[in-house]
Amino acid sequence: MVFTDREILETVRMLELETLDIRTTTLGINLLDCADPDLESTAEKIYAKVVHQARNLVAVAQSIEADYGVPIVNKRIAVTPISLVAAACGSHDLVPLARALDAAAKAVGVDFIGGFSAYVHKGFTRADDALFASIPEALAQTDHVCSSVSLGTTRAGINMDATARFAEVIKETARLTADKGGLGCAKLVCFTNPVEDNPFVAGAHIGIGEPETVLSVGVSGPGVVRSALERLGPEADLLAVSEVIKRTAFKITRVGELFGREAARRLGTTFGIVDISLAPTPAIGDSVSDILERIGVERTGAPGTTAALALLTDAVKKGGAMASSSVGGLSGAFIPVSEDEGMIDAVRVGALSLAKLEAMTTVCSVGLDMVAVPGDTPVSTLMGILADEMAIGMVNNKTTAVRIIPVPGKGPGETVEWGGLLGTAIVQDPGRFHCDVLYRRGGRIPAPIQSYRN
Question: How much is the pTM?
Fold first, then answer.
């Protein structure tokens, strides 16, 4: 990969003035060989393998930061879904495995470890059942562990029994972490059509098609795209806007692949993918909302927001695809409400509602992300919100997800401060009408007709 002098100078500007960074280096580790009939032995094997494989991850990331002057914000680990690893032991309590993951994450110094996960879109194994039962305690007792589940796919439909049960898991996790504003739910996400190479938490895990170990990176550059649009000005038409975003995403992706391949080389592992997702932070100037407003809406949530987001997501994907043959993960634009300074403000002034957010998820990279709702929101209402988002992903053959936090003791319009990357949330009103009958029905929503593609 050869870089011109101009590309190097543009990259320096993006780093120094436009908040370009490597948002995450995520080492995927296959844990299937840690399965053991004894739960304690399984936990010991998990701890030993994670520590062995990831022992140099943070040091390598820091060495690349020092050599190239590019900030690598997060160092993370993703592992095989734990329900697969735990199947051999037959235990009903998998919290010890979560504690082993957490201890390993602390030992190697990473920010998060993802993979306390299960795929249940067509039903539960005994291990899946045990994992669901263990999620609330696991997230309450650990600091670094993230959990995810697959509730639906375009090919399988939506498991509504699992969706209802996951809503109950959310409520219990919020209760057990009430002293932290329900923070455990910020490490918990459900998916339709999950991808096996997602380097971003809380959904990071590696699928069974991945190698023994694999290094993937997530690159983020909302500030870079915003600056490019500012230079373009408001007079240009939307084709010009799309071209500018594509060219910018191309440059960002080139940086990501360079660092991903170098990190993999230094770690002695396989390079996986570069996820070119515009992932915001609460910092000023690092907002996807700002980009949407530069494209042409007065405030995020105003009419035209979904169209602007569709243009942005598509252009980012096209730019990334031109820059690399290893683009993967989720790639596009994230809209985590509490983590985006512009979106926080849009909720505060009444421009952005929960209903508008749902509309925006039809075209963004993932779905409803870091949305706070009242702590007394009924389980049936939570299930309805999850099911709506899963349906969007199922019918449109795209990945969708929900990371929702019922904040104990808080009502609509109140604020909760989680700090750091998780930011500030304004509790949103899910409405006063219920879906209790839908909740009680259970069963499965069949796969849509467009799933029959063979």
Answer: 0.93
